Amino acid sequence: MLPASIPSPDPVWSQIHLGPLTIHTYALCLLAGIAAAAYITDRRLRARGAAPGLALDIAMWAVPIGIVGARIYHVLTHLGDFTGPGVDPWAWIRIWEGGNALFGSLLGGAVGVWIGCRLTGLRFWSFADALAPGLLAAQAIGRLGNYVNQELFGLPTTLPWGLEIRPDAPMFPDGADPGTLFHPLFLYEMIWNLIGIALLLTIERRVVRRNEALLADGGTPGAGLRWGRMFGLYLIWYGLGRSWLEAIRIDPTSDAPLGVPANIWTSGVAILLGIVIVVVQGRRHPEPEPSVYQPGREPEDEDTEAVSEETAEADAKDAKDADADPVSAPPSEAAAEGTDANGSSDSK
């Protein structure tokens, strides 16, 4: 370990062997991030009136399609690694070896979310707004897998938090000195994402308080960060972070149209799309969001129905007992019938 540096994990940490089963640490980090996003999203949806567990139902569609999208995006932006003579044609499906693009997972995941929302009756933008902080949390956790695989680092640096990369690591730059330290991009992105969570939640909380104050004063509250605007802010924040991180990243196998890395182009698209969502949805929906459900898809309140049925059954039983035996009727009902407990008139 070099002085004043961040050591990379021993390659043995990248896998866990349980008999004939091999579990990749990278996959565990992805699963942990997915679980965190599902938990955060479910709590936020429930606070907005959704039934429990809907986030998991939608995740069953979003996660697998998102993983496929992540791999496809990575392959398309690193065609040199997956094409040409002597290249294993099945290499593109070995996702456990690393190589999953976050922007591709967003595109594929969006398709999965749309399908899940159609089936569950949730509004697409309502789910996206609830998901935004969870996405940042998932991405922060998932970057630990890149750290274990030693595959996400930047230009050489002499800063005290420089990252050590083993010379035999697949992504170690050709011609670099074995003692070279690199910018720990995995750590930079983790910090950026955690700051983004705090920022988005702070803005959301302040907007909610402002609307509550307007409502208390008899004014008309605005839409807040609903109708997709929270997700739009997420795209802006994450796109800004990735644009400068990709500018100092070492990724020699990535395609670079016009000399600009593909991920920087995609980051710019994410920023523009986020701005469009915030502006357009702000004009289309200045009113508060009435429900997280699509119109006509609101579920019936099962608890209320159960209580109503129990109350109706109890009332019917009391009425039947009162007809059969006036003595057993409650005093209030006997008084209403104009009789006392002995069947005589109360009128004096």
UniProtKB/TrEMBL annotation:
It is found in: Cell membrane. GO terms for molecular function: transferase activity. It is a multi-pass membrane protein. The chain crosses the membrane at residues 23-41, 53-73, 93-117, 124-142, 181-203, 260-280. Residues 325-337 have a biased composition (Low complexity). Pathway: Protein modification; lipoprotein biosynthesis (diacylglyceryl transfer). Residues 314-323 have a biased composition (Basic and acidic residues). Keywords: Cell membrane, Membrane, Transferase, Transmembrane, Transmembrane helix. Residues 299-313 have a biased composition (Acidic residues). It is an enzyme of class 2 (transferase). A 1,2-diacyl-sn-glycero-3-phospho-(1'-sn-glycerol) binds at residue 143. InterPro entries: Lgt. Its main location: membrane. Pfam families: LGT. Residues 287-348 are annotated as: Disordered. It comes from the Bacteria. Its EC number is 2.5.1.145. NCBIfam families: lgt (TIGR00544). Catalyzes the transfer of the diacylglyceryl group from phosphatidylglycerol to the sulfhydryl group of the N-terminal cysteine of a prolipoprotein, the first step in the formation of mature lipoproteins. Belongs to the Lgt family. HAMAP family: Lgt. This is Phosphatidylglycerol--prolipoprotein diacylglyceryl transferase. It comes from Promicromonospora iranensis. The lineage of its organism: Bacteria, Bacillati, Actinomycetota, Actinomycetes, Micrococcales.
